[in-house]
Amino acid sequence: MKKRIIGATLLTVVFALLISNVVGVLMFRSREMDAARSTLQELLELMDAQSAITEPEALMEQFHAAAPDKRLTIIDTDGTVLADTGADASTLEDHNDRPEVAQAEATGWGEAVRRSDTLGTSMLYVAKRFADGMIGRAAMPLSSINSLAMTSVWGALIASAAALLLAFLLSRRTANRVVAPLSSVGTALQGVLDGKKAPGLEGPQADDELRPILRYIDKLMDQLEGYIQSITAERDKVSLILDCMDEGLILLDEDGKVLAINRAARTLFGFPEGEQEDGALLLTRSRRLRKAIHDCQEKHSSIMLDVDALTEDARSLRLFVSPVSGRQYEGQPVGTSILVSDVTELKKAEGIRSEFTANVSHELKTPLTSIKGFTDMLSSGMVTSPADQKRFITMIGVEVDRLIDLINDILKLSELESVAIDQTEERSAVLDAAHDTASLLEPSAKAAGVTLAVEGESVTVGVPMSRLKELLFNLMGNGIKYSENGGTVTTRVRVEDGKAVISVEDHGIGIPEEDQSRVFERFYRVEKGRARKNGGTGLGLAIVKHITQLYGGTVGLESQVGKGSTFTVILPIPKN
Ligand code: ADP
Fold this sequence. Notes:
Layout (H helix, E strand, L loop, with lengths): L1 H50 L4 H11 L4 E5 L5 E4 L14 H9 L1 E8 L4 E9 L5 E7 H52 L16 H35 L3 E6 L4 E4 L1 H7 L9 H6 L2 H13 L3 E6 L7 E8 L4 E2 L2 E11 L1 H37 L5 H32 L10 E2 H19 L2 E6 L3 E2 L3 H17 L6 E9 L2 E7 L7 H4 L11 H6 L6 H11 L3 E7 L3 E9 L4
Parallel strand pairs: 13-15
Antiparallel strand pairs: 1-2, 1-5, 3-4, 4-5, 6-7, 6-11, 8-9, 9-11, 10-11, 12-14, 15-16, 16-18, 17-18
Helix pairs in contact: 1-2, 1-4, 4-5, 9-10, 10-15, 11-12, 12-15
The site of adenosine-5'-diphosphate has 24 residues, from helix 12 and helix 15.
């Protein structure tokens, strides 16, 4: 702007100087010409006054002595040159054709500017018809007038240079004055952009005309600062939300290059924090993802797909790839958005559920197949003896009981699984529950030749009585099932570290080490044949584990093959 102000001023000054100089020089020259013309005319008038009484040659001599720098010529009426100070008259041709001479003959006076062939220079000629009819002509070279004009041109040029310098200095000063407040506006605006408070703009150096504008800009900047602050706050809020999301969010441009990626997406895809990601790298890793992005853009419809993350923990990711149109991110058009969620647990749960369904079907099928076999035999009439018929019917009854046990256990398990933690108010005495359960199991213990013992201190836990008995029933029942004839199953109750510790010990077949971590899984049996023969459903320990977890406890196992097993349940003791 400064340059433009100075440039425009200087240009104006240059034009003004040029015009005034040219006009000045032309006027100067024309004035000089007028003066020269008058001099020549005066000379001729004087000569005219003398011409009648003096010979042409003598007349010339006389006037040439008085004006040596002028060329004087006397021409006869027929054009013959009678005398000339510039050349020998006899050598000169007829002068009637000279315009000034012709004009003087016709009107009395004549004038011409022309190059003299005789003297070889530009001359101003003035001619006069004398009273005696002869033509007197006086001439002077233009070079003297031109050199005078040149002198005036130099003078004008020097004055112009001085005027230009002055104009430059003045315009620079003015430009500085005009631009200074604008520069301070610029500095202040930059300050606002850098997040600093805008300084007041109205300085003493500001011109009166600029003051209201500066005041207005000052106000605008205050507003702008407010806007910037609110936009920054908004942006921080959005990025906070994006960064706190458990779901990953990725924005791609129309070529599939990553424009933005939030913290969760980085973690899920295994991008190190802060690393400048190469968008293409992320997407070229999965061919299916690349295809989904392409299809999504092509068909303008959302696509859902599951991929395995290439991270060490191989998590399962569910991606929702959606087309985005007419939106920009930091000035670049967005083509696709990808919402990423971690479905590892969901997939695991789905796997467990389908495995459980398969197991349940299998477990149901076995007794049903047996029942079908027995009923077919009976209905075919092949079993005729009443003793055999009774035996078959008893076996059907056993399988039906097994089915009922199985269905009951499945129902219990699904009921236990439907809640994560039970904050019950109910309190139960562990020793009472153990004694009651032992009485309940007494007939089967007797049948197996196993002795049941319950001992320890009385302690109350925050578990409903029915669930506590269920837990003990499974543990003590297993003790009986997997003990040899003559064995003992001992249930002990004690308080340790402020917690109720219930252990059920047997001296039975024991559990191999490699199976110990798996016996709490649903339908997991160490020896399938024996477990089934004992009437086990394979769900007892899963139920135990779920009950202890539901009431904030833990269950552990110590066992040695051939020596026996001890299951230990630790439950918190409620304060009231
Ligand atoms: P089941 O109804 O088959 O007993 P559980 O879930 O109660 O099912 O037990 C799972 C498996 O753990 C059993 O099939 C058995 O192989 C083993 N098991 C459980 N308790 C004992 C124990 N006290 N001694 C030896 N093995 C046991």
